[in-house]
Amino acid sequence: MKVEVKKEPPSRAVLEVELPPEDLQKGLEEALTRLNRRVTIPGFRRGRAPKVLLQRFVGKDAVYEEAVNLLVPDAYASAVDQAGVRPITRPQIQVESVEEGKPLRFTATVDLLPEVSLGDYRAIRFPPEQAVVTDADVDSAIEDLRRRNAHLVALEGRPAAEGDYVLARVVEATGDQARLQPGKEYLIEIGGGTYPEEIERALVGVSVGERKTVTTTDPASTVTLEVSSLKRKELPELSDEFAKTAANAGTLQELRDLLRARMQQEVEARVRQAYEEKVIDALLQGATIDVPSSLIEHELQHLVGDLTESLSRRGLTLQRYLQATEKTEQQMLDELRPSAERRIRTELAIDEFSRQEGVKPVQEEIDREVENVARRLQLDDARVREWLGEQGRYDSLVTALRRRQALARLVAIARGDAA
After folding, report:
1. Are 348 and 291 in contact (CB under 8 A)?
2. All residues at 6 or more sequence positions from 126 whose CB lies less than 8 Å from its CB, including other chains
3. CA gap 228, 160 in Å, rounded
4. Cα–Cα distance between 42 and 20 in angstroms, integer?
5. C-beta neighbour count of 292 within 10 angstroms
6. Is-contact 76 51, C-beta < 8 A?
7. Whether 205 contacts 159, CB under 8 Å
8. Element at 92 (helix H, strand E)
9. Which of 54, 37, 59 is nearest to 46 (CA)?
10. What are the distances in angstroms from CA 33 to CA 43, 65, 100, 232?
11. Which of 12, 218, 260, 289 is 20 to 30 A from residue 227's alpha carbon, by CA?
């Protein structure tokens, strides 16, 4: 068998394959044997008809087609091995005319796993990022906690102002304002951003019993409101009792310590993620990767699947999401495409980095990762191993672990901590 390989950008190969006439002849003989077992010819038991009569009955083209279907898959697999390429898509096969006594020629076009050139990744250097939580940050968190534990009390002695709450009855509503229904009361926070800005702004300075007619632009409508009552938000006093009620802390100082520790973890996680993204950006800037469109399209479908699953957990469908965001499916795909391409480029670059650095998890680390999965799923290790094997996810787990280890090593290089 002869095989010629032509490389085409981006990361595509065209295999020109030629099978000798004797291989085609064997294929034709096998094709006739198989057709004989499937085709019934009047006067003969199935499988017993003479091959000459069978070929005349089904036609030469049917025999040739059967032979091609028998020969090409195995020939393609052998051609891939012989050429030493790594396809990532199903081949597009084009067979030349088939003629007995002559070679069988076909071409197979496939996208390949892209070649990756990383550049001098060991020159990547960034100073370590500091994750700092200040006293002001803790104070702000406590104030936020006070606001979330506030309660509403009657507003007396002054008109409504920014941050106050107005209980108003809709007297009349025209236009597209379907949210505010005549006869119903609504509690509106001035400046809260929940209702149209024109309505919230118009309520500044109102008193109980006052009527306000407001025209809004988005949606276009005219609404008349009558103020039923005014309320203000009263924050709890800073005390040990507040600490106990708001966060089950014994004292106010314990609350501060609890918030600081929690915020420190959150800040460290954000700083670590931002630093990793910065390092990955530097790796990709120095890398040369010709990503075939088929890989991007495949990843794009993964992102759509992730979005669909996320929406489903919130009781939404993808169609409802598109309607709510006023987007077409194509617009959604266009928005997701850069993320899909970056994810693919990142995975390819990290995989090549793993290869060059010899990063590979040992069995003990893999076992520990399986234990972590079992703990998250609240199942025993044996059941999780069985589940990973059944779903074909074991290799994915190992790959994900290897990529995390590789990223950790790349970060160590960037920080100047790696040997």
Report:
1. yes
2. 275, 278, 279, 282, 414, 415
3. 12
4. 35
5. 20
6. no
7. yes
8. strand 92-95
9. 37
10. 18, 14, 17, 90
11. 218
State the Cα–Cα distance between residues 260 and 254, nearest whole angstrom. 10
Q: With a cut of 70, which residues of the chain have pLDDT below it?
A: 391, 419
Q: Residue 130: exposed, middle, or buried by beta-carbon count in 10 A (0-12, 13-18, 19+)?
A: exposed
HSE-up of 144 (CA within 13 Å, CB side)? 8
User: At which residue do the structure tokens 């068998």 appear?
Assistant: 1
Q: What are phi and psi of 92, to 5 degrees?
A: -95, 110
Q: Which two tokens stand for residue 7?
A: 């490389």
Tell me, what's the pLDDT at 100? 87
- pLDDT of 391 reads 66
Q: What is the pLDDT of residue 59?
A: 87
Place of tokens 């708001």: 246
Q: What is the pTM of this model?
A: 0.73
- Cα separation, 183 vs 271, in Å, equals 51
Domains and CATH numbers, the chain: 2-113 (3.30.70.1050), 151-234 (3.10.50.30), 249-415 (1.10.3120.10)
Residue in this structure with the two tokens 């632009």, named with its chain if needed: 217
**Contact yes or no for 163/191 (Cβ under 8 A):** yes
Length of the chain: 419
What are the C-alpha distances in Å from 3 to residues 14, 56, 77, 254? 10, 34, 11, 74
